[in-house]
Amino acid sequence: MSAICEQVDAALAGSRPALARLLSIAERSGPELLEIEDRISARVGNALVVGVTGPPGAGKSTLINALLPHALKDFDGVGVLAVDPSSPFSDGAILGDRVRMQGGEYGSSVFIRSMASRGELGGLARAASTAMRLMDACGWSLIIIETLGIGQVELDVMNLADTTLVVLNPGWGDTIQANKAGLTEAGDVFVINKADKPGADVTRTDLLESLSLLNREPPPPVCQSTASTGDGVAELWTALRDHQDYLEQSGQLDSARAHKQQLLVRRTITHQLTHEVERLMDSDLATSMLDQSTLGQLDLRQTVDRLLRELARPRG
C-alpha cells in the first residue's frame, strides 16, 4: 500500500492530522490527486456543500462563524474551506491560520482549512474540488466553501456548491452593476450583511428589483443580517436549509451533482494535462527545440507538432 493510500485510510478513520496532510498534498495539485480520488470515490456524495461568495469586505468570514452554531444543530460536523490570496513569495495562503474565524470553541465538530488561490481567477483554489471531496469522504456532513471575494470572477463556486450564498453590504452597486458582476445569476440565497448600517433597506429593494429581471422560479430569498451581533443569522440559516429541501424535493439535487461530476472529470483531465505539459517543457528535448525555434531552425508548427507527439507518447 502506498503512503498516500495509508494517509487516506487514516483520514477516513478520523485522523485530523492525516486529513490536513492530504489537503496540503491536494493543494499542490500534483499527480497524487488521482490516487487520492481513487481511494475516496466510494465514500463521497453525502455532504451538503454551501458556497459563500461576494465582494471583498462583505463580512463573509464573520458570517460563516456566526452560522456555525446554527449549522451544528443540524449537522454532526462542519468543514470550512476558505480560499485566500496567495503569498507572492511562498505561494501559500496569506491568511493561513484563518484568524477571522474562530471554530476552536466547537472542538472536533468543526474543521477549518485555508487554501491558497494560486492565481485561480474563479475565486477557488485549484484543488478545492478534491479538498471538498476529501472532507466529504471523511464524514464532514456540511462543507462551507468561502471564495476570495474578487467580484466579477467569483462564480466558479457554483460548480462545487449545492447552494450558493451571496453576501452583500448596504450601498452595494446599482442594478446594472449587479447584473454585470454576475452575482445575481450565481446566487441561490442572498443576504445583505452589516444590515445595521445605513442603506440596507434601499440595497434590499435594488437587489429585489435586479433579481426580478431574471424571472427565476422560485425567486431566491433576500435576507438581512448583522453577523457581528448575530441578528438575522438564524433566519439566514433557515433560508439555506429551505433551499436544500427544495433541491431534494424537486429532484434538482441529483441532476446538479451529476453535472458537477462531469465538470470534475473535465477539470481533473485539464490539471493532469497541465502537469504533463509542465514536465515536458522542463525536459532537455523541449529546451533544445525551443532553442532551435528561437534561432529559426524550426518553425512554430514543427516545434508544436513535435512536442505534442512527445506528450502523447506512452511512457513506461
Rg value: 22 Å
Q: Averaging pLDDT over every residue, what do you get?
A: 83
Strand proportion: 5-15%
Largest sheet: 7 strands, parallel
How many domain modules? 2
Can you count the helices?
12
CATH superfamily of the largest domain: P-loop containing nucleotide triphosphate hydrolases
**SS class:** alpha/beta
What's the CATH topology label of the largest domain?
Rossmann fold
Q: In the CATH hierarchy, what is the architecture of the largest domain at level 2?
A: 3-Layer(aba) Sandwich
In brief, what are we looking at here?
The protein is an alpha/beta fold and 316 residues long. It has helices spanning 3-12, 16-27, 32-40, 60-74, 128-137, 175-181, 183-186, 200-212, 233-250, 252-281, 284-294, 300-312, and strands spanning 48-53, 78-84, 110-116, 142-146, 163-168, 189-192, 222-224.
